[in-house]
Structure formats: structure tokens, C-alpha cells
Design goal:
Blueprint lengths: L5 E16 L4 E17 L3 E5 L6 H8 L7 E7 L5 E3 L5 H7 L3 E4 L13 H11 L4 H14 L16 H13 L5 E5 L7 H18 L2 E6 L2 H4 L5 E6 L2 E7 H6 L4 H8 L40 H5 L5 E4 L2 E3 L15
Parallel strand pairs: 3-8, 3-9, 6-7, 7-8
Antiparallel strand pairs: 1-2, 1-4, 4-5, 9-10, 10-12, 11-12
Helix pairs in contact: 3-4, 3-5, 4-5
Length: about 325
């Protein structure tokens, strides 16, 4: 159940990668993978983070966990004991101790599990790192396997004996091993068959209710986050361009890019007319972004102001934020939930 307590607060986060050329590897530019992003997540909430491939959402998720170091910004985490810590200021030893509070479920259930380790070893690895040994470790692994729907009699098998859906359950069990409060789920169903996707999404929802988990749920498909996310943030070229409660964003989008993403969501009623918006041009280059609004070269509503002025992310309705000069004027088409 969602509370009013903020578990994660991201402030002005940036992650720039250098662009180097020549034999001396001289830096000639920067790729702005995450560019001045701010948001917060309440304890027990699921925040969906969506956008096209290359928009920076996976980089953002890895920065939140300090899997990669951000260039600038603050990442404030409230631990299970109520203590507040800035993740960006921790050294390696302090970060290792904090790992039990936050974990990641990876996109690919095939490459994220070591083929040389048994399921018992894979799920128990975070516990081992925290000093748990012997019967206590095995008992906890059995508990986790049962929790995610795995056969506890198969713990001594290797990952190649399992299907993609079962492997993702192993990855989820591993992420839950140390009782984390925050889970970053990086496209956890995109590599799975559609029939299996629903099972994993239902499992994640059940686990959230049972364990009081908080999710940063990363996806490229708005139809995936529709039922699991309480709020949705839309990213484009390193920036959040819209953020709102899920229902408000789906029914009444305020940014043209969100409208285009929603137009691609499959309609459950075959009698409804399909009207997918095909965006012209390519996604802006984060190493050489266009002036003004990053989306203006592909936007059907763009005007001169859009080419010159960069729109800030502003609240255009209660709890609904958008980075568009004309967010309050445009009548954009959403989808029924």
C-alpha cells in the first residue's frame, strides 16, 4: 500500500558520456544520456518510466542504484530504518552495505544469470555478500523460490534447465533476497513471450502487495506499464517530458510525444478505429540535440517558439507535469484504460 513517505528523491540528475576521437582519444563532445532529471517515488508506489530505445531510461535506472556513477545530481534514499542517505556521496564500502536496501531486476533473463551457478547459488549470492551462511541461507532461498512460484526441488539445477519466464522468476527471487524496499525493474518482460509477460507482471504486482515494495518500472511500451504503475514518467532524449498519474496520462496526455506513444497501444475493442501516429524523422541525437524543444523536429504541432525556446517541465494540471509550450492549449488524444 502506498504511503505519503518519500522513499526515493532524484534531484537534477545528469549522466554525460564523453565522445572521444583520434589516437589520443581527445574528448570532442558529450552524450547527454540523462540531462537534469528530477522526480520522487513514495514508499509502496510503482513509477513507470517509459520511452523509446536510447532515451536514457536504463541509464537513469542504473544511476539510481549507482551501478554507474552519475555526472551530477543527488539521489536521496530513505532506508528501511528511516535514515536518509545521499547515494551519490557514498564510498564503495558504504554502497555495498546499502545494496540490501535496493536491487535490480534485469531485462534479459538469459544473460543476467550465470550459467555456471545453480539456482540455489544465484538466489543466495546477495545473502552470501551480506554474511548469511549455511542453513539460514538455504532456508531463505527456499522461501524465496516458493514466493516467486519456483519448484524448491529444482534449486540444484542450472539456469539452462529453465524457460525464460522461470529464469526471470529466479532473477526476481535474487533481487528480493535481502528484503529491499526499492526495486528497479529494467524492462523485466520485454524479452519474454506475450503469454509469459502477463504472468510476470501479475507476480510483480502480487509481490508488491505482499512485501510493500516500491518499483521504478522501466519499459518502452506503455501497454506494459498500464496496470502496474501508479504514475508514469515519459522520457525523451535524456529528459522527462511528462509525468502524471497513470489514468490521467492515458486519458488526457499533455505532450505530443506521449500522444504518439499512446496511439501505438493496442485497442482491446476491434470496433475501435486504429489511428497510430507515425512520427517523422529520427530521435534527436543526445550528443547534438536540437535547439528549443527536443521534440520539435518530429512534432506535428510545432511552432516557431518550439524551435527557439526550451520548455520547462511545469505543472499544467494538479499532479500533471509536461514540458510543452502549448500543453494547456492542445487537445491531444488519449486511450481508454
Amino acid at each position: 500500500m502506498q504511503s505519503d513517505e518519500t522513499i526515493l528523491q532524484v534531484k537534477s540528475l545528469k549522466k554525460y558520456f564523453p565522445v572521444e576521437k583520434g589516437l589520443l582519444r581527445r574528448q570532442v563532445g558529450q552524450v547527454k544520456a540523462v540531462d537534469d532529471v528530477s522526480f520522487e517515488i513514495k514508499r509502496g508506489e510503482a513509477l513507470g518510466l517509459v520511452g523509446e530505445s536510447g532515451c536514457g531510461k536504463t541509464t537513469l535506472g542504473r544511476c539510481v542504484l549507482r551501478a554507474i556513477d552519475p555526472t551530477e545530481g543527488e539521489i536521496i534514499l530513505r532506508k528501511s530504518d528511516g535514515a536518509v542517505v545521499d547515494i551519490t556521496a557514498l564510498d564503495k564500502g558504504e554502497l555495498r552495505q546499502l545494496r540490501k536496501e535496493m536491487q535490480m531486476v534485469f531485462q534479459d533473463p538469459f544473460s543476467s544469470l550465470s550459467p555456471r551457478m545453480t539456482v540455489l547459488d544465484i538466489i543466495g549470492e546477495p545473502l552470501w555478500a551480506q554474511g548469511v551462511r549455511g542453513q539460514a541461507l538455504e532456508a531463505r532461498v527456499r522461501e524465496l523460490a516458493d514466493l516467486v512460484g519456483l519448484n524448491v526441488g529444482h534449486l540444484n539445477r542450472y539456469p539452462n534447465a529453465f524457460s525464460g519466464g522461470q529464469r526471470q522468476r529466479i532473477g526476481i527471487a535474487r533481487a528480493l533476497a535481502t528484503h529491499p524496499g526499492l526495486i528497479v525493474a529494467d524492462e523485466p518482460v520485454s524479452a519474454l513471450d506475450v503469454s509469459i509477460q502477463a504472468q510476470i507482471l501479475n507476480l510483480l504486482q502480487d509481490l508488491q502487495e505482499k512485501l510493500g515494495l516500491t518499483y521504478l518500472f522501466i519499459a518502452h511500451d506503455l501497454s506494459v506499464v498500464e496496470h502496474i504503475a501508479d504514475r508514469v514518467a515519459v522520457m525523451y532524449v535524456g529528459k522527462i517530458i511528462e509525468l502524471a498519474d497513470t489514468e490521467a496520462l492515458y486519458l488526457n496526455p499533455k505532450h505530443p510525444y506521449t500522444e504518439a506513444l499512446l496511439s501505438a497501444v493496442p485497442k482491446p475493442d476491434p470496433r475501435l478505429e486504429e489511428r497510430e501516429i507515425i512520427l517523422s524523422g529520427e530521435v534527436a541525437n543526445p550528443a547534438d540535440p536540437p535547439s528549443g524543444c527536443l521534440f520539435h523536429p518530429r512534432c506535428q504541432y510545432a511552432q516557431d517558439r518550439c524551435r527557439q525556446e526550451k520548455p520547462p517541465l511545469e505543472e499544467v494540471a494538479p499532479g500533471h507535469f509536461a514540458a510543452c509550450h502549448f500543453a494547456e492549449e492542445l487537445e491531444l488524444t488519449g486511450v481508454a484504460m
